UniProtKB/TrEMBL annotation, chains A, B:
Keywords in alphabetical order: Hydrolase, Signal
All copies of domain Glycosyl hydrolase family 67 C-terminal, residue ranges: 432-661
The protein's name in its UniProt record: Alpha-glucuronidase
Cellular-component GO terms for this entry: extracellular region
UniProt-recorded Gene Ontology molecular function terms: alpha-glucuronidase activity; xylan alpha-1,2-glucuronosidase activity
Annotated signal sequence range: 1-23
Pfam families: Glyco_hydro_67C, Glyco_hydro_67M
Domain Glycosyl hydrolase family 67 catalytic intervals: 116-431
Length: 684, 684
């Protein structure tokens, strides 16, 4: 009997272990454990970073058994910055961090069965930075994956546990594996408290966890900090006391964090304080901070996201504000510019600032967190959106002056280049809420490293690493092909069910999740309402930004400005962005505008339904946990796409006064009930 | 200036009148005003009822101008009961009420452009009765169109206003126009108070309003009334004091209402008191009341809807209870039997009691109010359901012994026949909540008058009278054809998206609106749960009522009992009613049961979407008010059909363990959220 009992206990233990091993909670991201093969490693240099590279090689080696791989520091001029060279038996780099990056690339290639011989890879941007919009109380602005991993997790928000350090280490490792080398730890709508000694102590601790992985720490600063936490009466950037306060603060920071990266500043934007409060310019403000940081090689990332409650078209304002300041900034100042001239919409043309500045470095700001793209409920792979922006031709120096070339130093021959992504990371077990939101984090890192990568490659890499875990499954071509297609189609589907044909910013107030094309409020500035942007009336729909309208088209170089200006040559994906178009206007496919709008919205809904179907078809190819999670979220997305379609078509129909074409499905909601429903983000 | 001012005022007045004339609130039902042609009427008899006939002819005549039409009382033996004969220039009838019925039929035929020469029409049933489940506080059990038109509208519920009398008159007129001649004014779950002097005074007033239209008044009585409002200690039907109490009460009623119709009784059913409380039988109870009413020619309608918390299959219990009592009832007692053996489900086989009783009259009880068929939110035309029941062959006296024949006197050669419909009428302006619910009231009346009418005829009649109002529109064949098709398909669609293939009673608890196939509760009797009825398990689904199961099949005459008993011969519409069927069972179309179930549910959803599309296509054919109302309700129905499909497929999938076939759309809800959602009837 005792014998049998023992067998049962052993069996139960095994069962339990099997369950634990199989549970896929998404916490491992694209770095899931797999059984490694024995490898010998020799290195001419040792450091915390190189030790990490060695450990990763030991844990993840899938090459020849008992092979010896060398880690070499080299001065090979083909290798730039923290780039690296992979050889059959060696990783070569100029820096220790380059060795770590080379390690991750080598292991990725082994896992994906890609060749590794003579691969040289250099980063497109020097600084590849995540912006965390984390508040010091632990909440995250536009965060959909739980509370902050940095702040507020304990009563005073400053106590540090081993669990914190483990999380920060895992976070740093994930970032390093895709080449991210910087993190702004707090919200751009910054609390001045971040610069107080107590908080700086915590920043120091975080920086220590991130440092071995090559992640530099940055902070968002409140321009009024000298008043708010100092003892000064004002924060005027030309005031000597203010200058000194910032110099002292910089010294204090660098004493704690010698490799501190610098400041990110949102000034005179959406109510944040700034130099204009004292009659000074953005240049005055940025340069004052730059002077304080320069002795320590720190930088200032000054956000160009500014607009005033003026009658001027909001999308024109950043350009008008900053173009006159070109060349006046200190050498360690870089302008941080959102991909589009408005605000992270499902689709915008690129910001004209990318092609405008000649003597001021400009860095793109992408939004990884899905503020306007379905939060963590909807599967929307953003890589294609960023790819579209990076590949957009500004014509700054004639054809081929892409946004990528304007920002990665190709055109300006500078090495002071950077790119930022607003993080989608929180305390959720799987970091990002939606499993597929991990792909957006991954894609941002990969594009920041190599801005010529194609989204389809990124999707395939991510899918294989994230879902497939043995030789057999790695070759599950059907799974990869099916889900890669969903990912690549997902952003266009979202554009279709939310805002096709160049529509923009018709979101519900506040939560920015559902539709509210009807949103209008006399008590707030017009450019915070939806009707400001779509301008629907019985004649037509769209924002006239042509030369007869707001003339935003002329912020672009020729031939773009004329192309956008003319209704017939304007790309139809930007039609209602640049034109107020009659409902009866014939599109290139022969349909009138109203019919096309209806068909686009419906197509978006049908696309999500097809995603559902294709997802269901791959059941069994992956673990049941993440299968069920994504299946459930696609159901939500399907309902929400329907809500978008119904809300927009029923609302706009009041102006078009035309029938919804009978080839598409009818709305299943009433306009009035949708107005109620979408007030809260929690539809269900 | 004064002249212009006057013109403006006149114009505004005309505009206002036009608006009033055009506003279609549905209150006029199928009796909408239209401009009449002058007619002369001669009548050999005058009475309140004949005066109504004359007024209707004057207001609605569409025949030759200045023609003379005669109203004649006749003894023509081809005319039965309150039937009538239409001639070119006369309406002939045996009774004054027959003249009124002939008038409505004549006007209907003129309106519908049907021939009127030598039409003879006799009612299928002597008593054509609405059962109002109205409580004395004004609420209505299973009512979805506002509060009671009889009770509770004022503080004490007994005050009577002119508005009340106008409403009762309009109600009586609508009923008379379709041949209804009786109304039970209060809920079968009856308050004893209805028999108190104060309430009887109000019943008298209502009866006075209904009488000219030939509507007899009936009341539901509580079997314990002698205890509850008398001074007796018990209500034992064999107790002389109890007998006397009822005799006295009957005399009191008839003194107030000389043409009072009689009592409807729900006894020993779902907690109501009854003779079994004293060890007596249904016969003892019914006969005691029958004796009290007999001197005044009153009748007792004794409901057969009884079942006990016993292990016996609930659907078998009424038959088992009443068959042994056949022939023992007094001559003025009639058994009121619901169409199916369970409870007004979207589809049931007919109740075996219709074919069982030889010496006891039986009357069908249909439910007009949509307790289990979408309340007043869903467009479900019930005429096809009732037609299916009436045409079902019981084989009582061999082939051709339809439910209609078993109940309308064709088989038994009795004139004591009746039919009841549970009303869907309330204080809503349009009487029934949903405009198309008016069609169910209409169809019940028409079928009660002529149980051989086809639903397609009834739908066409109703549509033309309800929506089309001039010569041009009366010939709008496209509108009629399109919407008639929706109506005729609507019940089958509801069966598909709610309970296809013989599934039954998987509704949410209480409100009976949405799905809850998961509903189970140890604290209540099993036959009030859903799992009792579907019995889904990993082997299959359905209630085994074959000879190896509950043997309910043997309550039917041969060949039905054997047909139902065999899986291969059982009609597939009743499959899961009679059989527990393996998931892999092949249906006649070659599909396995699980696949067919999925496809049926999805088909129901697609059907509602097609109703939406077809409804939208007839925009402009009818008034905008009712167009918008129905459009909005079809949207709700579409969402709710989807909820039904998703809930049932996701729930049953847990047992079938099979994939939802990929040819249908995926669910867009999660099971867990649906369980929460459907707890309340108010999804939105």
């Amino acid at each position: 009997m005792a014998y049998i009992k023992r067998i049962i206990i052993v069996a139960l233990l095994m069962l339990n272990q099997a369950t634990v091993l199989k549970a896929e909670d998404g916490h491992a991201l694209w770095l899931r454990n797999h059984s490694a093969i024995k490898v010998n490693i020799s290195s001419t240099v040792r450091s915390a970073t190189v030790d990490l590279a060695i450990a990763e090689l030991r844990n993840g080696w899938l090459g020849k058994e008992n092979m010896t791989i060398k880690l070499n520091l080299t001065k090979n001029p083909s290798i730039k910055r923290d780039g690296f060279q992979l050889e059959e038996t060696a990783i070569n780099a100029r820096t220790e961090l380059g060795l770590l990056y080379g390690t991750y690339e080598l292991l990725r290639r082994q896992y994906l069965n890609l060749p590794q011989r003579n691969v040289i890879s250099n980063p497109s941007y020097s600084r590849r930075i995540l912006n965390h919009w984390d508040n010091l109380d632990g909440s995250i602005e536009r965060g959909y994956a739980g509370s902050s991993i940095f702040w507020g997790n304990t009563a005073n928000g400053l106590n540090i546990t081993n669990q914190d350090r483990e999380k920060w280490k895992a976070y740093a490792r994930a970032n390093a594996s895709i080449g991210i080398n910087g993190a702004v730890l707090n919200n751009v709508n910054a609390s001045a408290k971040i610069l107080s000694p107590a908080y700086l102590e915590k920043v120091k601790a975080i920086a220590e966890s991130l440092r071995p992985y090559g992640i530099k720490t940055y902070l968002s600063v409140n321009f009024s900090s000298p008043v708010l936490i100092g003892k000064l009466k004002k924060a005027d950037p030309l005031d000597p006391l203010v200058k000194q306060w910032w110099k002292d603060k910089a010294a204090e920071i660098y004493k704690l964090i010698p490799d501190f990266g610098g400041f990110l500043v949102k000034a005179n934007s959406e109510g944040q304080p700034g130099p204009q409060d004292y009659g000074r310019t953005h240049v005055d403000g940025a340069n004052m901070l730059a002077d304080a940081l320069a002795p320590f090689n720190g930088i200032v990332m000054w956000r160009a996201f500014v607009y005033n409650p003026s009658p001027e078209d909001r999308t024109k304002q950043a350009y008008k504000e900053f173009l006159p300041l070109d060349g006046a900034f200190k050498k360690n100042v870089i302008l941080q510019v959102k991909n589009g001239p408005l605000d992270f919409q499902p689709r915008e043309p690129f910001s004209p600032l990318f092609g405008a500045m000649s003597d001021t470095p400009v860095m793109p700001e992408f939004q990884i967190t899905q503020e306007y793209l379905g939060a963590s409920r909807q599967l929307v792979f953003l890589s294609t959106l960023w790819e579209e922006c990076l590949n957009s031709d500004t014509y700054k120096n004639g054809k081929g002056s892409t946004v990528a070339a304007c920002t990665d130093g190709s055109l300006s021959k500078t090495d002071f280049t950077a790119i930022a992504g607003v993080a989608n990371i929180g305390n959720d077990v799987n970091w990002t809420g939606h499993t597929f939101a991990q792909a957006n984090w991954y894609a941002f890192g990969r594009l920041a490293w190599n801005n010529k990568l194609e989204s389809k490659t990124i999707a395939e890499e991510w899918l294989k690493q994230t879902f497939l875990d043995d030789k057999e499954k790695k070759t599950d071509a059907n799974f990869i092909k099916t889900i890669q297609e969903i990912m690549l189609d997902s952003r266009e589907a979202a554009v279709d069910y939310m805002m096709p044909l160049g529509l923009h910013h018709i979101f519900a107030e506040g939560h920015h999740y559902g539709p509210a094309p009807w949103f209008s409020n006399d008590k707030i500035r017009p450019d915070w309402t939806s009707v400001y942007y779509h301008k629907a009336d019985t004649a037509g729909i769209g924002f006239d930004r042509t030369r007869s309208g707001s003339d935003a088209v002329d912020q672009y170089h020729e031939p773009l400005s004329s192309t956008f200006n003319s209704l017939s040559s304007c790309p139809e994906i930007y039609l209602l962005w640049f034109h107020h178009v009659p409902w009866s206007y014939r599109l290139k496919n022969g349909r009138d505008l109203w019919t096309e709008l209806c068909i686009r919205y419906d197509h978006g809904v049908q696309q999500v339904r097809s995603f559902q179907k294709n997802w269901d078809k791959i059941k069994g190819s992956i673990d049941s946990e993440r299968f069920a999670e994504v299946q459930s979220k696609l159901r939500t997305q399907s309902r929400d796409a329907q809500i978008w379609k119904d809300a927009c078509l029923l609302y706009f129909q009041q102006f078009s006064r035309r029938e919804i074409p009978f080839e598409i499905e009818r709305p299943v909601h009433d306009l009035q009930s949708l107005k109620e429903l979408t007030k809260s983000r929690d539809y269900e």
